[in-house]
Amino acid sequence: MNNSVSNTARLIGAGLRALLVLTVICGVLYPLAVTGIAQAALGGKANGSEVKSRGKVVGSELIGQRYDLPKKNPADPEEAARPDLHWFQPRPSNGLGSNKANGVNTQYDLIVSGATNLSGDNDKLIQQVKDAKAAVVRDNSTPTYKVDPSDVPAEAVTSSGSGLDPDISPAYAKLQIHRVAQVNGLPLATVEKLVADHTSGRILGFIGEPRVNVLKLNIALKEAVGK
Amino acid sequence: MSPVLSGVLQFAALTAALGLSYRPLGDYMARVYSSDKHLRVEKWIYKAVGANPSTQMRWPAYLRGVLAFSAVSVLFLYLLQRLQGHLPGSLGFVSIPADQAFNTAASFVANTNWQSYSGEQAMGHVVQTGGLAVQNFVSASVGIAIAVALVRGFARSRTGELGNFWSDLVRGTVRILLPISVVGALVLVACGAIQNFAGIHEVGQFMGGSQQWNGGAVASQEAIKELGTNGGGYFNANSAHPFENPDGFSNLFEIFLILVIPFALTRTFGKMVGSVKQGYAILATMVTIWVGFTALMMWTEFAHHGPAFDLAGGAMEGKETRFGIGGTSIFAVASTLTSTGAVDGFHSSLTGFGGGITMLGMQLGEIAPGGTGSGLYGMLIMAIIAVFLAGLMVGRTPEYLGKKIGTREIKFAACYILITPALVLVFTAVAMAMPSTRDSMTNSGAHGFSEVLYAYTSGANNNGSAFAGLNANTPWFNTSIGLAMLLGRFLPMVFVLALAGSLAEQKPIPETAGTLRTNKPLFTGLLVGTILIVTGLTYFPALALGPLAEGLAS
Q: I need a surface site. Which of A178, B115, B326, B387 has the fewest CB within 10 A?
């Protein structure tokens, strides 16, 4: 009996020492080595691919942002956001949370990535898609251009997995050019060219999907508008 | 190019990359676990551990090593989270409550990586990098060790010796997982995954004001998270988060990391039992199921049945623009046919059938190709069942790889097969009977039931993905899923090692004209059939209430 207790203790001791040694290797040396190489060779990317507009950092090209008008009443958390139609609009992000809203670690106001997790037969999702589609048609129709509801691409009316999707499809960008040109008083051809310049195809021609980075497009748009 | 064609070409490119790495990696791993030379760094580790790496262990000793190491790991990770609020480098995050800390500790040690917390708002550098990422390495290494022990059971005769656990653990970590992870992490950084210790900091925004980011060692954790088929994301959105998975190429590369070791282990197996053709037969079984599942997933996601998706014109809810339907479908199948559970799109918002495919993938036992190590030993257990069924049909004593499959062996295999379904179905039934469960569901009806069934399927099979609509951060779910993960991981290991010990003691029997050729396509067909029938009979009633009901309704 005594023997088996001391055997177990010895075994646990060996397990603990193995864990500590492997923690030093995999939990300290490995991440530090990778960070060192990454910072030295790929610093910009390792730090979040920040992009600048007129010398100021305005976010990451990888992280989607909202382009909304200021709230009428900043103290009201319930007030629905209204898109600022001067700018190209991203996808909806109905699943995105915030650190404050979730009530954990309230000293921060982090963006907490997240999806809606609603299923295809969920009434709430059906309503969200309906509303989003109506808004896309309404916002993007101009006196000279009517949006056909069947032209609205799926990603324009659905929330992404992260809630931080930085991209929209070229189809959704094209759908917005008439409105963007009109609101900003720019020739349609100028806005068309901006979208074409900021459309990236599939990597190597077949990997991933064609996309338009909304932040970079809006930065270029801001330059074109010149304000 | 149409999205469908792009999806097919991506799958073809992935298959080619896996094919190219199959032989070199498989052969290399066979050498790692067969050589009797120790690297200098390994000698230091053995000295620190106080273990002699050349001592051969019989199965009970090997099992004791596994259990001691894992028990210490659970306790260490639990304490790390409970003390987070007092540890430096925690970014001011508070300590994790007891039930959630237990759940997370069990989850990461069991190679599951089920997460009832949101990474970016709960865990600081110390727990993420020094605790969770470490288990990503060692739990994967333990899985491979168990698989190698079973393979040695087939390969060795008239001995009970299965190798040395400490040596297998250390070699798997140092010689296999670490080098590939370093390269993998740097590739991910080159795509845009972040790797810094900036902590929480403000970054300006286009419309003015600023946003708060939580920076950390993300790429290094992402690489081993996929390679070790772990799946626990640094961020809440897991591999859908642009900082974890920045573009279409990183997405395909992460899928490659998930699958590369589990597939190549069939080569390692073939090498070690002295017939690579035996490995090919197992590989062919895995590939058949994997290709079939991916094709089904692409079909249902591109067809997008479901009222909301019909209205939107595509099943893009919960999916990222840069991956699209094709990339997300390939990822979802790879993640749930292995024990990974990482997601680049949210499974709860897949179509009804798509959600069912992810669940069925896990319920097969995650064997096509399965988790690092656990996929191979799960598949070999299925092979034993298939050989046994074939033996019954022709009235011969079944044998596999020159070993007799007698009463003892088949009992161990049967116990292995029964554990996980028992955990899944019993826990799901109990949870559904509890009134509080309804409060945790986001969706109602068939999909609400699916959320709960998915949670226990994912936990007991050590997958870790979720129909994340379920709020699983309650004392009941934290505790019961925590138990399901631990029992679903370590009870099967007991039977695998006992089986390995029993096989290793046998003397080999010569192959005769009546021996079932287990290296032929006929056997692959038999094995695929066995897997589908055993799993189908077990889970069909439960699946009919959830995803099948939802899929047929829309």
A: A178
**Which of left, alpha, beta for A168 (phi over 0: left; psi -120 to 50: alpha)?**
beta
> ipTM value of the model?
0.95
* Token code pair at residue B452: 């709960």
> Who's near A183: CB < 8 A, 6+ residues apart?
A85, A86
What's the average model confidence in pLDDT over B355-377?
A: 95
- Contact call for residues B95 and B85 (beta carbons, < 8 A): yes
Closest to B248 (Cβ–Cβ): which among A20, A105, A203? A203
Q: Any idea which residue has 């393979």 for tokens?
A: B151
Interface test with chain A among B181, B311, B470, by most A beta carbons within 10 Å: B311
Is pLDDT of A19 > 90?
A: yes
CA-based Rg of chain B, rounded to a whole angstrom?
Answer: 22
* Cα of A112 to nearest chain B Cα, Å: 7
pLDDT class for A106, splitting at 50, 70, 90?
Answer: low
Nearest to B428 by CA among B348, B544, B542: B542
Domain boundaries, chain A: 1-47, 53-91+122-225
**Residue A214 Cα, gap to closest chain B Cα (Å):** 11
pTM score of the predicted model = 0.96
Cα distances (angstroms) measured from residue A223 to each of A220, B93, B431: 5, 41, 57
Query: Residue B137 in 3-state DSSP?
Result: helix
> pLDDT, tens digit, for every residue of B45-55?
999 999 999 99
